[in-house]
Amino acid sequence: MKIFTKLFILLCFFEVNSQIAGESTYQFLNISSSPRQLALGGKEITLYDFDVNQPSINPASLNSRMDNNLSINFSNYFSDINYGTAAYAYTFNNRGNTLHFGLSYIDYGNFSGYDEQGNPTNDFTGKESAFSIGYSTKIQRLPVYIGSNIRFITSSLEQYNSIGISADLGILYVNTEIDLNVGLVIRNFGTQLKAYDEIYEKLPFEIDIGVSQLLENAPLRWYLTFENLQKWNIGLSNPSRLTTDLDGDITEEKVTFVNNIFRHLIIGAELFPESVFNIRLGYNFKRGEELKIIDQSNFSGVSFGFGMKFNKLRINYTYAKFSSAANTSFIGLQLNLN
Predict the structure, then answer these.
(1) Cβ–Cβ under 8 Å, residues 204 and 250
(2) What one-character-per-residue DSSP string does 230-273 give?
(3) Among the ranges given (83-92, 155-164, 173-182, 316-325), the one the predictor scored with the smallest mean pLDDT
(4) CB of 171 closer than 8 Å to CB of 146
(5) Cβ of 255: how many Cβ atoms within 10 Å?
(6) Which of 9, 61, 204, 333 has a CA that sits 20 to 30 A from residue 196's CA?
(7) Over residues 305-317, mean pLDDT
(8) Whether 335 contacts 312, CB under 8 Å
(9) pLDDT tens-digit profile of 46-62?
């Protein structure tokens, strides 16, 4: 734990401000790390079981049940964009101390280059990746776990390259008597070590709080997550929703107090969570509000999926609605190598 403490102290010297999409670099770090995550809304931080993908979003969830489990996930994100993740956990002593290794990769595809006059130049690509190492430990005599990830980030966009480093800090309370989990995560706390050009950009820092519980008389676990708590007003008006009256006066979309509260909220549910087959459903209010089309029902923000277990192999699949023109599928495999 000393190395994580030292890294956290080091990163505290860098300026950290509230960041949401469009205000920082390395936005691929906020894409869901697994099909199960996406199915439950995208940022579920209170899972505490066998899922070896979970420590990528909350390192405190790392435990010995993930030992020698390998997971590979892939999504044809949008258009020609390919996104994938991998995770592996290893318990290195009989006290249950476990390390977690995570990898995420995104390929934005090929682009046609043009100069200022519109003349064709060379084609180019864009790729980004991140590799993380995580560790967690239990606080003595308390059902509380704390953990940390160190993440090394590389990005290549056309002729520009960047390198960054970040850390995640997580806390997880697990009450086995009433099947209640409560989590807190500080994510993407770090800096660029090498800027694309001369300007150093901020990372997508955020603070999330979550709670989940298994119902006493039903095989259903519900999930509730409040994201981006480091910034209250995340409900920005959408320029495409401007209205013009008969006098030509333009009125911007107004984001109400209640609407802004809901944009911090993600809900999810998992039916038969401990069975060989389970069904998942989630709704991301922020995604749904920002991508919906006025006067048209397109179910933006909704995601659903399922998981199946075959002996030592688990298969997960999720389909998520982003908008009428953009939906994605996410498939993953987890193999127990023991």
Answers:
(1) no
(2) T-S---PPPGGG-EE-TT--EE-----HHHHHHTTEEEEEEEST
(3) 316-325
(4) yes
(5) 16
(6) 9
(7) 95
(8) yes
(9) 999 999 999 999 999 99
CA distances from 123 to 169, 208, 310 (A): 40, 39, 44
Phi and psi at residue 140, in whole multiples of 5°?
-60, 135
- Name residues whose C-beta falls within 8 Å of residue 143's C-beta, 6 or more positions apart in sequence: 173, 174, 175, 176
Distance (Å) of CA 271 to CA 37, 177, 315 = 14, 20, 16
Tell me the C-alpha distance between 57 and 37, whole Å.
9
Report the sign of the C-alpha dihedral through residues 86, 91, 92, 96, in that order: positive
Strand partners, 130: 104, 153
Model pTM?
A: 0.86
Amino acid of residue 312:
K
- Check whether domain 2-336 has CATH 2.40.50, yes or no: no
6-48 per-position pLDDT tens digit: 334 334 433 334 445 567 899 999 999 999 999 999 999 999 9
